[in-house]
Amino acid sequence: MLVRLMYASRAADSVDQEALLAILRQSKAANTASGITGLLCFSGGIFLQVLEGGRMPVNALYGRIAADARHRDVVLLSYEEIGERRFSGWSMGQVNLARLNPALLLKYSETAVLDPYAVSGAVSMALFEEMVATASIVGPC
Ligand code: FAD
């Protein structure tokens, strides 16, 4: 039973580039071990993350993430049972917004600023899919 979950959150003040890299390192190691794949986007103090994998490991991880003091205002945007993964190439890929054409953000939202709180979960998921298609994902698998 595979599921895909997406949430958004606001980073704690303490989260800088070093803290972000620490989260990515921790995620890649742990996700590989538990068969979880996905992407993490960080922009303007906002996290947007999609997690895919077995229902139990994904639910358990979301519980730990939601309790993590490194962010707040965690909001579940999408949760669905899936037949196949969309982001199987990444144990936790990092979305590089510097490589992202602002037109892509404008396609889906009022301004060229990433704000998952202001759009539907379906819109944020569509954005993730286009970022994968336009090779905006960086970092080793
Ligand atoms: P432990 O590592 O034992 O830590 C205990 C507590 O301290 C937990 O509440 C933990 O959240 C917190 N904590 C751990 N390290 C730090 C730190 N450096 N600074 C402040 N608090 C800390 N983990 C994954 O395995 N996969 C992911 O994809 C993933 N994505 C994440 C995305 C975001 C935006 C954030 C903020 C965290 C993410 N994490 C991810 C980390 C996750 O929240 C847990 O820290 C991790 O799963 C370990 O959980 P644990 O219960 O074993 O906590």
Structural summary, described in words:
This protein is α+β, with helices and mostly antiparallel strands and 141 residues long. The protein contains 4 helices and 6 strands, in the order βαββαββααβ. It has helices at residues 17-34, 55-66, 102-108, 121-133; strands at residues 2-11, 37-43, 46-54, 71-82, 93-95, 137-138. Strand 2 and strand 3 (46-54) form a beta hairpin. The longest helix has 18 residues, at 17-34. The two termini are 23 Å apart. The model has no long low-confidence stretch (mean pLDDT 90). Residues 22-23, 26-27, 30-31, 40, 47, 49, 61, 64-65, 67-71, 92 line the site of flavin-adenine dinucleotide (FAD).
Strand order of the largest sheet: 4-1-3-2-5-6
The counted number of beta strands is 6
From N to C, what is the helix and strand string? Answer: EHEEHEEHHE
Tell me the overall shape: globular
Key traits:
single chain, 141 residues, 6-stranded mixed sheet, binds flavin-adenine dinucleotide
Ordered list of secondary-structure elements with their pairings:
Elements: E1 2-11, H1 17-34, E2 37-43, E3 46-54, H2 55-66, E4 71-82, E5 93-95, H3 102-108, H4 121-133, E6 137-138
